[in-house]
Amino acid sequence: MSALAARGVRVRFGAARAVDGVDLEIGSGEIVALVGESGCGKSSLARALLGLVRPSDGTVECADRPLDYRRLKAFRRHVQLVLQDPSGSLNPRHTVYEAVAEGLRIHKVPGDERELVAAALAKAGLRPPERFFLRYPHELSGGQRQRVVIAGALVLEPDVLVADEPVSSLDASVRGEILALLLRLRAELGLSLLVVTHDLGLAWNIADRVAVMYLGRIVETGDTAEVLTAPRHPYTKALLSVVPEIARQEPIVLKGETPDPSRIPAGCRFRPRCPAYAAGLPAELAERCEKESLPVLPADRGHHAACVLP
Predict the structure, then answer these.
(1) Phi-psi region of 307 (alpha: psi -120 to 50; beta: other; left: phi over 0)
(2) Domain extent at residue 260
(3) Does some domain include residue 204?
(4) DSSP designation for 229
(5) pLDDT digit of tens for each residue in the chain (310 aa)?
(6) What is the distance between the alpha carbons of residues 24 and 221, in angstroms, rounded to a whole number?
(7) What's the CA gap between 99 and 229, in Å, rounded?
(8) Does any domain span residue 50?
(9) What's the pTM value of the predicted model, to 2 decimals?
């Protein structure tokens, strides 16, 4: 059973096709990394999966059921967001206790509030939890603030966490601790995670599967080890070439900027920046690159790439 899924999802902002047809599944207890450069549409897809943006086409499913937009409050108990900037996520006027208890009060969760807040802080690695109750965000380190944000999500006992760049604002020494925490939460609580990131090194360290996004579409998807050691799409190869932990070749410098999502090229959307196309392809493949609109990649567990190259 999939914990959260996109089925043919499209998101438009005027003429801009931010998400242009995506099938993606996050299985129960699975960690999926959604990777790509800024402007590729990954945050718009995450917002659609969270119910913050309603797709112009396609459906979002939670536990194999279509999302009911009339019951978003109930849905958000099951799917919680962890933002990249803990300083911006926390109200500087609220104590740690108030920040974590806010979700309980909004959703009117029964039980002893103090005990539930303490349990969430302990799960997030802030022990003893009572020591943090009356602290304010400015009194905490960056890693501790991110743990408070995670505790605020955990207090509602969700099934899925959507983590948007969860360690990008943290020091290198703290990044590993937060990643280890997310892995422990998956192991202990059976949580599913969608990790939105531009960092393939992070995906290598945490994810079971990777989905690489470019200009509103997933262009390669599959098992993390398979995609990152034997990439099939030229875009994935370019991203990997600049990751120190993984790179086995000279960096591939892509020419030009990410195309305008309101003017997506015909044929392969990566063609204007593709090193393989620029270097020259056989006439038949070049024609397919220029004219053939590749289908949306399936959401199954196989290794797929939206590319005409063998």
Answers:
(1) beta
(2) 2-63+159-305
(3) yes
(4) H
(5) 799 999 999 999 999 999 999 999 999 999 999 999 988 999 999 999 999 999 999 999 999 999 999 999 999 999 999 987 788 889 999 999 999 999 999 999 999 999 999 999 999 999 999 999 999 999 999 999 999 999 999 999 999 999 998 888 788 889 999 999 999 999 999 999 999 998 888 899 999 999 999 999 999 999 999 999 999 999 999 999 988 777 667 888 888 777 789 999 999 999 999 999 999 999 999 999 999 988 899 999 899 999 998 8
(6) 9
(7) 41
(8) yes
(9) 0.95
